[in-house]
Amino acid sequence: MSGKRLLAVHAHPDDESSKGAATMAKYVAEGNRVKVVTCTDGRRGDILNPAMDRPGVLENMIAVREEEMARAVAALGVEHEWLGYEDSGLPQGDPLPPLPEGCFALQDSEKVCRDLVSIIRKFRPHVIITYDENGGYPHPDHLKVHEVSMMAWEKAGDPDYAPEIGEPWTPLKLYYTHGFILRRMKLLQKLLVDRGQRSPYEMMIKRWEENKADVMDRVTTRVECSKYFAQRAAALAAHATQIDPAGAFLASPVEDQQRVWPTEEFELARSRVDSALPETDLFAGITGTGTSTFQGAQE
Q1: Taking CA 141 as the corner, what is the angle to CA 58 and CA 261, rounded to the nearest 5 degrees?
Q2: Are 249 and 92 contacting, i.e. CB atoms less than 8 angstroms apart?
């Protein structure tokens, strides 16, 4: 396997490092092209790492997150493109406040789809990774990513859709990334507790259990990528405003993660090729270099 192309569509800078990062690094190392599209600038992200809560950071959040993203991209070896929209932020309160005028979540979905189709037609991915119908979690930007990704999946290969933005290209498979697996967190927590160490997983586990958010029963594809967990950790650490070194993302040593859960998980949501489930490879069933011929998606 070599020379395939994978496009991962994400809402904010840092999402690519917590969802499928080691898989992307693996495919790059094996000679494939991988591109991350980041839809928003991350301007409304909170500072979640106390060490970064200092003068000059919040005031320059866009520039800071651009620098963080550049370091994460370098750690993973992927290509990258900004879609250019404004972070919507995560509304909080009761009742919820309105979303900021002009933000990504309020954009016309047809316009965003057109922007994404333009990238798809230029990059010509065989596989697209995006979020499920719940956005992974119901952040308004994640929900918008799901909506426009599904639209672009249908339209990118249609010669009658916006021919002026590029030659049609039909992606062959579309996956939802499932980066937060309850069983994985419980195993990692047990290792820490058995050693007498503090576990930062407790609140996440409680929230996942209360919301019945374990998505393992939806997983169709598990990619063994433990060799690339160190690159994943480096990419996460690059997003210093968003990732607290003492928090759940970096709490467990790479060696523990490799031992108890050496895979990353995905759900095959759409396919135009045949592949047997369960899978161990996002490119399973894809031969040659793909097609630019328009086809309807298999359900």
Answers
A1: 90
A2: no
